[in-house]
Amino acid sequence: MSDSDAAAKVDSAKVDSAKSARADVDTAAWSIRFELLSDPHRLDILLALHRAPGICVGDLAAAVGRSENSVSQALRVLRSQHWVTATRVGRTVSYRLADDTVHELLHWLGAQHG
User: Fold this and answer.
1) Whole-angstrom Cα distance, residue 30 to residue 94?
2) How many whole angstroms separate alpha carbon 110 and alpha carbon 46?
3) Three-state SS for 96?
4) In Å, how far from its chain's centre is CA 107?
5) Residue 75 and residue 93 in contact, taking contact as beta carbons nearer than 8 Å
């Protein structure tokens, strides 16, 4: 089969329809979301924040079985993407989910509120 035969069999309407699908979704933003969700450590933290909003780093570290340093680093990444927000009261910083889409994704995964 020659290249011209293959080109003749292409359904240009289907090709155009398939190409237009990319305009409906911000693929770069979703790629970042899935990359962040693909790390089990970050996913554990997100699930814990979902269940216990307003938790501090020490309690969060105990809940997910990681060091405070490790949890702080993960929170820094999640905050940079605006998934998590921090509130300081005196010397204590508490964290909660800030991204509604991530919140809904966690529900879709089966996460429940406490």
Assistant:
1) 27
2) 13
3) strand
4) 12
5) no
Instruction: Characterise 29 by phi-psi region: left (phi > 0), alpha (psi -120 to 50), beta (else).
Output: alpha
What pLDDT, on the 0 to 100 scale, is given for residue 83?
A: 95
Angle at 36 between CA 83 and CA 17, to 5 degrees: 95
Neighbours of 22 (CB within 10 A): 9
What pLDDT shows up at residue 22? 84
For residue 75, the Cα-to-chain-centroid distance in whole angstroms is 12
Helix (H) or strand (E) holding 92: strand 92-97
At 2 the three-state DSSP class reads: coil
Are the C-beta atoms of 97 and 83 separated by less than 8 Å?
yes
Q: What does the angle CA 71 – CA 112 – CA 105 come to, to the nearest 5 degrees? A: 70
pLDDT (tens digit per residue) in 54-97: 999 999 999 999 999 999 999 999 999 999 999 999 999 999 99
